[in-house]
Design a protein that fits this description.
This protein is of the alpha/beta class and 336 residues long. Helices cover 29% and strands 23% of the residues. β6, α3 and β7 form a beta-alpha-beta unit.
Length: 336
């Protein structure tokens, strides 16, 4: 990467925004001018990048003038208002919010899976949902090898998926619970300390939650195959960082566990474990890989298997995937 790029990070003080800055620095992304933005409440905060301090500002109509790339780590409402402003100013936007993911003309990209889609953008590239990202990274090569018919997935999602406030609520509630105080859910619909909550997002009329609906829609869009059936149950658990998920996968062609393991060991971005080893969230150590273990045959169905998938939701599930998209834009693969 010889060319330097003027970069804006919107939502820079949040959990994902701070991680984007960290990953940009770790991966030596060729940042020229850097501008950091956040809410009016967070304006004035100092953040460090490559040994230099930057002041976080609030957004205005001229914030993106001269910016070539903008990473948004914001709510759908903020992205809906300001992403068009950034695009109008000439920046290519990589948006972490759900605001544009369902737009037909906005590519939804996981570089290990559908890198070529990034080059069909009209100024906006959507970063998928955190749980979707790790699932499709694990499924991509398996789908090419065995033709996936159906996936039943149950997620166990860390509180950092709800941002810094989610982490703070868990810590506060743990202290309250140990002190025998009453616990009330504010960020989450129920108390999260020593608990699991089977609701992430609002309930939809079909009975599923927003998170479950996102996973089904986004995976099909990324994998380019509407024939895949995906049924998700998304659960919030009292873990700070690292989403886990249990998948039951049914395939058209025979998919014995030994072959599944072989395929996964050749998959981009995947680390596959063989029994008796298995991945857990506390073992991630800020990795950008997707970890897969507990691969075993489903004895109740033909051509079906189970597996366990774990990834860092702030890194591969958000920030790292976004930065990888930025890298793709600067260095297109030859086949693209």
């Amino acid at each position: 990467m010889d060319k330097v790029v003027n970069v804006a990070v919107v939502g820079a003080t949040g959990a994902v925004g701070r991680t984007i800055l960290k990953v940009l620095e770790e991966r030596n992304f060729p940042v020229g001018e850097l501008r950091l933005f956040a809410s009016e409440k967070s304006a004035g905060t100092n953040l460090s990048f490559c040994g230099k301090d930057y002041i976080v500002n609030k957004l205005d109509s001229e914030s993106f003038n001269g910016m070539e790339m903008a990473f948004f780590a914001t709510s759908a409402a903020v992205s809906g208002e300001w992403v068009p402003v950034a695009v109008e100013a000439g920046a290519t936007v990589i948006d972490n919010s759900p605001r544009f993911r369902r737009d037909e003309d906005v590519p939804l990209v996981v570089p290990e899976v559908n890198a070529a889609d990034v080059f069909g953008h009209n100024g906006i590239i959507a970063n998928p949902n955190c749980s979707t990202i790790q699932m499709v990274v694990a499924l991509n090569r398996l789908h090419k090898s065995f033709k996936i018919k159906r996936v039943i997935v149950t997620t166990f999602q860390a509180v950092s998926g709800a941002g810094q406030k989610g982490c703070e609520e868990l810590m506060s509630q743990v202290n309250d619970a140990l002190a025998d105080k009453n616990i009330e859910g504010r960020v989450f619909p129920e108390g999260i300390a020593f608990n699991v909550v089977p609701r992430i997002g609002d309930f939809l009329k079909e009975g599923c939650t927003e998170e479950e609906d996102k996973m089904a829609f986004e995976a099909v869009k990324i994998l380019h195959d509407e024939s895949i059936g995906i049924s998700a149950t998304c659960v919030r658990v009292p873990v700070v960082t690292g989403h886990s998920m249990a998948l039951n996968v049914e395939t058209l062609y025979p998919s014995p566990p030994v072959r599944v393991l072989q395929v996964l060991r050749k998959a981009d971005g995947v680390v596959a474990y063989e029994d008796p080893e298995f991945p857990v969230p506390t073992g991630l150590k800020e990795s950008d890989k997707v970890f897969v273990g507990r691969i075993r045959e489903d004895m109740t169905a033909a051509h079906a298997f189970n597996m366990w998938v774990v990834a860092d939701n702030l890194r591969k599930g958000a920030a790292t995937n976004a930065v990888q998209i930025g890298e793709l834009l600067l260095n297109p693969p030859e086949e693209a």
